[in-house]
Specification:
The chain contains 2 helices and 5 strands; from the N terminus they run βββααββ. It is an alpha+beta fold. The strands form 2 sheets. A 3-stranded antiparallel sheet has the order 1-2-3, with no helix packed on it.
Length: 106
């Protein structure tokens, strides 16, 4: 495993599905070593010399998550600075015809 600052990543080789006879190319994949749960994240923020109590941080994040969910389910994308762009993504199985397709295929 290699690192850039605190970003952990691994290199891996992969062939192109479009050209299986071409040589493999090397790519990077991010590596996470553990999941920080919501309550632990709130505590982590409150311990970074924050003037806000753990309870205030908890409340703000709960409200932020509710608003984020509301907006993305309404078809909007929400950009949270350098953290990323949040939007809904779905996948479904295919149907032979438009008439045969139902939401059960999602």
């Amino acid at each position: 495993m290699l690192t850039i600052g605190t970003l952990k990543y691994r290199r891996y080789a992969a062939k192109s599905p479009q050209d299986p006879d071409a040589p493999a190319k090397w790519y990077a994949r991010a590596v996470q070593d553990r999941t920080v749960e919501f309550e632990d994240f709130v505590t982590h923020i409150s311990e970074h010399n924050s003037p806000y109590s753990r309870g205030v941080i908890h409340g703000v994040l709960i409200d932020m998550l509710a608003c984020l969910k509301e907006l993305v389910l309404d078809g909007k994308s929400v950009r949270l600075g350098d953290l990323g762009l949040f939007s809904v993504g779905i996948s479904s199985k295919g149907a032979e015809t438009a008439e045969a397709w139902t939401t059960s295929l999602i």
